[in-house]
Amino acid sequence: MKSFDVVVIGAGPAGYIAAIRAAQLGLSTACIDQWKTPKGEYALGGTCLNVGCIPSKALLESSENYERVLHQFKAHGISASGVKFDLKTMLERKDRIVGKMTTGIAGLFKKNKVTWLPGHGQLVSGGTTWKIKIDSETVEATNVIIATGSKARHLPGIPVDNKLVCDNEGALAFDSVPERLGVIGAGVIGLELGSVWRRLGSKVKVLEALPTFLSLADDTVAQEAWKVFTRNQGLDIELEVQITKVSQSKKGIEIQYNTKDKSSKTFDCDRLIVSVGRVPNTDALGAENIGLKLDAKGFIEVDKNCRTALPRIYAVGDVVRGPMLAHKGEDEGVMVAEIIAGQHGHVNYDAIPWVIYTAPEIAWVGKTEQQLKSEGVAYKVGRFPFAYNGRALGREEPEGFIKILADAATDRILGVHAIGSLASELIAEAVVAMEFGASSEDIARICHAHPSMSEVMREAALAVDKRSLNG
Ligand code: FAD
Ligand code: NAI
To answer: N or C: which end of the chain has fewer CB within 10 A?
Structure first.
């Protein structure tokens, strides 16, 4: 039987990064993954690389370029007629990027001497070492890192065929642009993929159960996003609905739902995306064989260092509590590998950025204003719009703002919220600042290049003390 210091189950961002870090630290490491491409070949990278972060961002970029040519170039004095796109080329480009990234991990495994064990991993027994069965082979491990990730949550009575009724997998591969697209769930996937198909020509209706829009984000950012997406971009979002029935007919898909005022309505569409959150992948993992505890929703229970209650078994990424974000899983993977190697790995859960890759982008780190209010924390607010920034105007991207929340007494930054072009990149400065326990005054005193979008961050920091220089 092959024996390893560390066996990682799952090669998504949490698992493959954990495996590489463990191998870098001199531990003999194997990584098991069951993912197969539509062609039936095993592939590394998990949800993120195959059907998540990477393909969605590729399509967001392509569709945004198309929309820019159609609508934004006019302001620059550039006109183009007969602008067309070829969906097949767009999808092939996305698939090429996915292929490059996933085969890249195979290369990284080779370079770092991580043994790749393709197949389904199941925990079978424990003792001084843990036994894991991969299809017909069994291996033993001193330490196990479970990184089995998550899958799309489906709704009862709404079967997903990934042709007409799709979760993220089908929604990233429509073979034609649906004339009318329905989306259930106005969360991150609904907004990102809804935007992709809207830009390519679909009439998109998003049906959301909650009465509030983007409740995770800061209220002021959510309000601005609502205005831009619904008023400026024509995304039709209806809140506080209750889906009662989804059926397929000759006309396509019929969605019946109750509205906020309890009347019933019907919406017909050609395709439907169901994006109502994700559930952990813990079925068929063999947790019950070794007495590994899951919570009521199927997540593996862990402490702040991703230790389970069993010795030398850890769990990281989407399969444990916390935001389902690739970089959160990666950081947990590094932490656990370092702890196994006797080092002091840690994750600062207070400084994990969120990004929603719509246009404008939405990004934040730390507390929202509504959280600070409910926690009774006294805070100051500094806010600055992109519309006053020369670079934003030059780029024809004046929408949105950056807002900094700082402790009223100490000025320490508690949260930074951005909606605007390149917010995904700009938020990095705020993450660094929060990691180093910076004050808004620190950002206000840092020299920022002119003209650059990053000046908005500095002006927002100056605004905390009511001393913006350009607005
Ligand atoms: P996963 O990526 O889900 O990987 C788990 C792996 O484990 C899979 O390959 C699975 O096949 C394998 N596995 C499961 N069980 C077993 C078993 N028993 N044996 C062997 N293998 C097993 N996050 C971001 O931070 N930024 C984004 O822009 C972003 N965009 C997204 C877009 C979409 C459409 C979706 C769906 C998600 C997106 N996410 C994004 C979320 C991100 O994909 C996840 O947070 C991330 O993939 C979680 O990583 P993970 O390693 O924990 O799990
Ligand atoms: P989500 O949790 O972001 O949003 C789901 C939405 O569906 C919520 O607003 C919820 O209220 C709504 N909903 C739930 N049940 C419903 C019902 N029966 N009817 C109508 N609405 C209903 O989940 P989503 O969009 O599926 O994405 C899953 C996760 O993947 C995200 O939470 C995020 O962690 C990750 N992700 C991250 C991205 C990024 O970082 N840019 C991009 C895409 C996904």
So the answer is: N
CA-angle at 306, arms to 300 and 312, nearest 5° = 90
| Closest approach atom of ligand 2 to CA 242 | 19
CATH class of residue range 351-463: alpha beta
Q: Mean pLDDT, to the nearest integer, of 321-350?
A: 98
Average pLDDT over residues 366-378: 98
What pLDDT does residue 250 have?
79
Determine the residue of 275, 354, 424 to mutate for testing ligand 2's pocket, defined as the one with the most ligand atoms within 8 A of the Cβ atom.
275
Ligand 2 lined by 246 (C-beta under 6 Å): no
Q: Which CATH number describes the domain made up of 165-276?
A: 3.50.50.60
Ordered by start, the domain boundaries in the chain are 2-152+279-347, 165-276, 351-463
Interval between CA 153 and ligand 2 midpoint (Å): 9
Residue 18 has pLDDT above 90, yes or no: yes
Evaluate if residue 249 carries a pLDDT over 90: no
Phi and psi (nearest 5°) for 271? Answer: -145, 155
Answer yes or no: is pLDDT of 251 > 90.
Answer: no
Q: Domain 2-152+279-347: what homologous superfamily?
A: FAD/NAD(P)-binding domain (3.50.50.60)
Q: Which ligand is in closest contact with the Cα of 279?
A: 2
Q: Is the CB of 187 under 6 A from ligand 1?
A: no
Mean local confidence (pLDDT), 191-202: 98
Its pTM surpasses 0.90: yes
Which of 9, 48, 361 for mutating ligand 1's site (highest number of atoms within 8 Å of CB)?
A: 48
**Number of neighbours of residue 206 by Cβ within 10 angstroms:** 26
Indicate which residue's Cα is closest to atom 43 of ligand 1. Answer: 48
> 165-276 and 351-463: same fold?
no
Residue for token pair 């109502």: 276
Is 154 labeled as catalytic in the residue annotation? no
> How many whole angstroms separate alpha carbon 118 and alpha carbon 134?
8
- Output phi, psi for 196, to 5 deg: -55, -55
